[in-house]
Amino acid sequence: MPRTPRSLSFFRVVLSSLLAFSALSSWAKDKEAAGYPLSGKVLSISSKNAHFYQIATDSKVYLMMCEKVGGFRFGLPECKLNDKPIAAGDAVQFRVDGDWAYMPAAKGKEEGLRILTTELKAIPPLEPSAAGDSAKGAGDERGMVIGTGIHIKGQKRVGWSTDPSAVNRPAFGGGASGIAMATPSAPVMATGPVMAIPVTGGAPVMVTPAGPTGGGMVMGIPVTGGPPVMGMATGPVMGVPVGGARTGAPVGGGGGGGPVWVHLLRVRSGDKIYQLECGTKPCDVNKKEIELGDTILVRAEKKWAYLSFGNESGVKEQKFRILGETDEDEATDAKKSPDGKPASDAK
Domains, the chain, ranges and CATH? Predict the structure, then answer.
């Protein structure tokens, strides 16, 4: 029996709808890929005092701390993937904007993670010094930037991600990251808003602390506006120990501000690996930003390192504080990729 015009019309409508849905899905995937061009795998996580994630892409390894999440959540910020907490082994997509990484979340929102360190997944061999490299001084040596990062000003230790034990080290959530948990005897300046139950009663309120927090009590300004609220924090309050991150003024600048984050470099030069501290802006030499993988000249003198991009006449050096240095043969993280293989074998 011949197909009726009505049946043909219905078939055409269904076919058109299926094709349109397929095209829309493809467009949505392409749009997401364009918005989050980086992809990687979560190697390991740590939830001690904060949620940290070690994430490897094809060429880099990141150490990130979850700090911005959508909606109100009790306790420490924990970033999610497909509405489930991020776990080791997960494949993730993200974009980088300065010191932050953003991942897609539910309902078109994003999860924000502070990038603590970024390192080369496999460190290439350093080229031999070229003739004239030491023209600026007898101590100049060719070096390579193998890591960049940030930490709270005043810290003494850096938990570089390519050290396989970095994210599992018990001190990482405290001494290594500069973040501590408030206790009755050790108040902290919170690094972000805190959820608290008002002492006068009522529903929990998200507040921005106006001063140090200790023993679970917090005084802050509601993020939605209004008069200050005194309340009991609903979870651990993370922050910088009062007096532990000095910037020439009390923690918070004396005006209720947060901790001061400064930029770092990890540089291999000769038989040494240096941990260098810059400032609140990305590390630079003569207004040229120093990037991961850059080849530079290094001259170390006592507690300072002098970096430059070349030895031509008039080239300026930039002075950076040396936070620490290790012999290369002692730095196992410089010889191995995060999966434990020699860097020369890593892909």
Answer: 38-119 (2.40.50), 128-153+261-345 (no CATH), 180-241+250-254 (no CATH)
